[in-house]
Design brief:
The protein is an alpha/beta fold and 306 residues long. The chain contains twelve helices and eight strands. It is globular, with a radius of gyration of 19 Å. Bound molecules: glyceraldehyde-3-phosphate (G3H), 1,3-dihydroxyacetonephosphate and zinc ion. The site of zinc ion has 4 residues, from loops.
Amino acid sequence: MALVTGMDILAAARRGGYGVGAFNTNNMEITQAILEAAEEKDSPVIVALSEGALKYGGKDLVNIVLTMSKEVTVPVAIHLDHGSSYESCLRALRYGFTSVMIDKSHEDPQTNVKETARVVEAAHAVGVSVEAEIGRLGGVEEHVVVSEADAILTKPDEAAWFMEHSGADYLAVAIGTSHGAYKGKGRPFIDHQRIKKIAALVPNPLVMHGASGVPQSLVERFVATGGEMKEASGIHEDDVRLAVTEGIAKINTDTDLRLAFATVVREVFKSKPKEFDPRKILGPARDEMKAIVKARMEVFGSAGKA
Ligand code: G3H
Ligand code: 13P
Ligand code: ZN
């Protein structure tokens, strides 16, 4: 199937009340895990490449992802994750990405809106959709006073103003999640009231970054092979499910795949010290990542929605 835009996938998701995963890739095996899972689950999917991934894999990685994505039958969008500049987004457009994120969330809101609008103008001219972000990702405690959370998290009024003036298609919101394997002690607090307030003012699909579940069983296996990881924690599946009913349509996952990859490679080295065939090291890691993507597609509700 030909690639589709991010908005094609996410508008259908928001209408249908389900979420779609954006999974980060850095190589062939991760890309295969994502796309094979999508095919087997009959699910739309977004394959995300960060600037770091592009620096690591260059045009070769882009070619792998584009070629493989065009061969599957389910809808796939190729997305630039956390694009840091206009130039970076233009490069992704030239590569043939069908979705770009311009992340100026660390700038003041006026600069953010202005820089996002520039990218929107260029991307929309070639039929590509745009994600933007307002607010700062980071864990907050449930008991913090509203003014403290407001200083970090996405303000509903500001989100509405931002979307109206930037023209972006979907919005990454700061609602308590954070990137990586350490998202706060215990079950991280997700500000569901805030998601609902934003969604009441912003009809566009909303995006949850930092959504990995960081499964405890994987963390234990990682540590059992000598890996070091203390007090890791991720977003509870029930929080993701609830967030989808509240307006989240795009759910970003990178850490879970990295953790699965590293854990299985460590296990192979530990249990088979004589093994040095890359296929026997990376193949099992690919299987584990594929199982994780499939399970998440069930949680998000995108399975069967292709
Ligand atoms: O949000 C960040 C993603 O996990 C990508 O991370 O920049 O290390 O590739 P990266
Ligand atoms: P995780 O670190 O929770 O996987 O989040 C990834 C992400 O948000 C990529 O943009
Ligand atoms: Zn992110």
